[in-house]
Every structure is written in structure tokens, then in C-alpha cells.
Amino acid sequence: MAHDLATTNNKPAFAFYGEEPWHRLGQKLDQPATAEQAIAAAGLDYDVTLTEVATVDGMMVPRARAVVRYDNQTVLGLVSNRYIPVQNKQAFGFLDAVVADGGIRYHTAGALGQGEKIFLLAKLPGHIRVKNSEDLVNKFLLLSNAHDGSAALRVLFTPVRVVCQNTLSMALNQGQGEGISIRHQGNLEAKIGEAQRVLGLATRFYDNAAEKINRLASVYPTEAQLKNYFEKIYPSPEEELAKNSTKKARAELHRLFEQGIGHNMPEIRHSLWTAYNAVTEYVDHRTFRGKSERDRESNRLQSIWWGTAAKIKERAWHLAMQLAA
Predict the structure, then answer these.
(1) Diameter of the chain by CA atoms?
(2) pLDDT tens digits, one per residue of 145-160
(3) How many domains does the chain have?
(4) DSSP secondary structure letters along 209-268
(5) Beta bridge partner(s), residue 67
(6) Is residue 21 located within the same domain as residue 113?
(7) Phi and psi at residue 53, in whole multiples of 5°?
(8) Which pLDDT score is estimated for 198?
């Protein structure tokens, strides 16, 4: 299901700093925002509340609650009676607790659907430079929270390659993800109080990422290795109808390996780093399904950050690291 941008007071619940986003909607910020500014600009200054649930016959459902958006009384989802909501201000305050020194600023904030999913993209200071080239990777934190019970409060470490704006997905260690999750149960105040450890985790993540990215940029696969790499990312399907699309996907990956954005830099050309970025460019910029352009681009956003595209890129990262070992 597509999740279009939510609205608050008939305005898109979205604010951004920098280049105009795909949907050309929302409020443009003149400079990176503080949490308070981001909440106001993106129309996220609403609370949610829990209400009891009854059947059509008036019978109460004891272990269920409805999450209701307080400003317009929209039901955002059904949850268990153990569910504890995290308000938008509380979620944004999670990162504020990390960056009290002002070293981080919010670049993008918004909500999807009826406001059941909120997201916030915050930029950390500095960047990763690949092999002393002009290929730079910016360091972001992506915070998301679901008011419908579908997901925990999450903070993901989200690198973005500057030259092409591709979002990179990389779980750097076996069994270690790309961030932290806090479930909507138990003592949330205590859990959110542990937010300071996020910055330390992010620092280690990006230090580790820099070392591994530069390792990929120093390894040059043979033609056979490259072919095998792309075939593992898009393995041959059993269904006959899917074989043609898989063949086209592999051909496009080979083309992007040669001609992808930024792949002509001599320091990185024909390396595993450009092979991996052929995948990121393909899955980030391919055509997505949807009834309208906004639907298609909303599906793109969700896929890149949380869905199929993120999973494909993570698999591509692991396979590239295996080749570089």
C-alpha cells in the first residue's frame, strides 16, 4: 500500500532543507532546523492518545486500544493494551538528548499516511572521503516512529553519497544492524534516557564504514567476479516471466558500473565500490509502481529507507565485502 504524505491543517506534513524533494510539496527551510523548528514546519505538532475499543454490538475489547490522532480524531491504528505511545515531540527529543551541543541539525521531517508514520533525517558533522577523491559520503541519522503499532521507534545510521544522493545500506558486522530500536512497551522514559549512546554508536559505525568503503574502492573485480556479483544480487528466478526482467536488471547494473553517476573518477573507477553503487543507483532511481506520481515517489521513499531497496542494498554490501576479504 502506498503511503502518501500526511496533511496538517490541509498542508503537507513535510519540511526540508536543501534541494526540492520529489513531490515538490512542503515547507522549504532556509537553514537546517532545530527539533522545535522541524516539528512546527513539518506539521508534526500533534499528539496521539489511546482509546478503548468496542465491537459493533458495544462489547468492549479488553486487550485492544485504538491510537487516535488528537487534533483531528483520526484513528491511526489498533494496538495491544501494553502499547505505550511515543509523542512526536518526545521522539524528536530523543535525538535532541544526543546532540545538546548543537552539532546536529534536522534536514528533513515529515509524516506519511494519516500521520501514523513520522520520520526525521538529521545530518552529523563531517563526511567520509573515498580514496582522497571528490567522492564524499555524508553521515545522517534517520529516526522513524509508527503510531499504528507496526514498528518500533528506530534510529538508523544512513550514509548518503553526495555525488548521486544515493542512500547506502550497510550492516557492518554480522548480527549488528544499522541502528537501534525501542519498542513501545515498558519504561520508555528510561529507554529514551539512554539516547546518549546513539552518538557513540554512530561514531563507531561511520569510522568502521569509512574503513570498509575505502577497502571496496581499492579492490578491482575481474569480469567474471563482477558478473557473479550481480547474478547473486539478482539470482535467476524460476518463473519464466520474471527471467526477462532479471536479465534487464543485470544489464543495467553492468551499464551503471561503467556509466553511473561519479563512476568516472579515476581513484574509484572499476572498483567494488562502484559495483556496489551501481546497485544503489539502480534500486534508488528505478521506476516504482503507483496510481500517481506522488504515490510512486512515496513508495520510492519507503523502499529506500525501510523496504525492498534497503534490503537489496544491504545484501549487495555483504556480497561486496565478501569479495574484498
Answers:
(1) 71
(2) 999 998 888 888 888 8
(3) 2
(4) HHHHHHHHTT----HHHHHHHHHHHSPPPSSHHHHHHHHHHHHHHHHHHHHSTTTT-TTT
(5) 50, 77
(6) yes
(7) -115, 140
(8) 76
| 73 half-sphere exposure, CB direction, 13 A CA radius | 0
**Could you give the CA distance from residue 226 to residue 290 in angstroms, rounded to a whole number?**
33
One domain, residues 127 and 33: yes
Predicted confidence at residue 6, as pLDDT, reads 81
pLDDT in tens, 256-307: 999 999 999 999 999 999 999 999 999 887 766 666 656 666 677 777 777 8
Q: Are residues 260 and 175 in the same domain?
A: no
Beta bridge partners of 75: 68
pTM to 2 decimal places: 0.81
Segment among 90-94, 165-169, 174-178, 258-262 with least mean pLDDT: 174-178
Quick check: 2 pLDDT over 50? no
Residues 34 and 177 in one domain: yes
Determine the Cα–Cα distance for residues 95 and 1; give it in Å rounded to an integer: 29
C-alpha cell at 250: 543485470
* Cβ 25 vs Cβ 13: under 8 Å: no
Strands 14-17 and 27-29: parallel
C-alpha span between 118 and 153 (Å, rounded): 10
- Its domain, for residue 137, covers 7-202
In this structure, is residue 273 part of a structural domain? yes
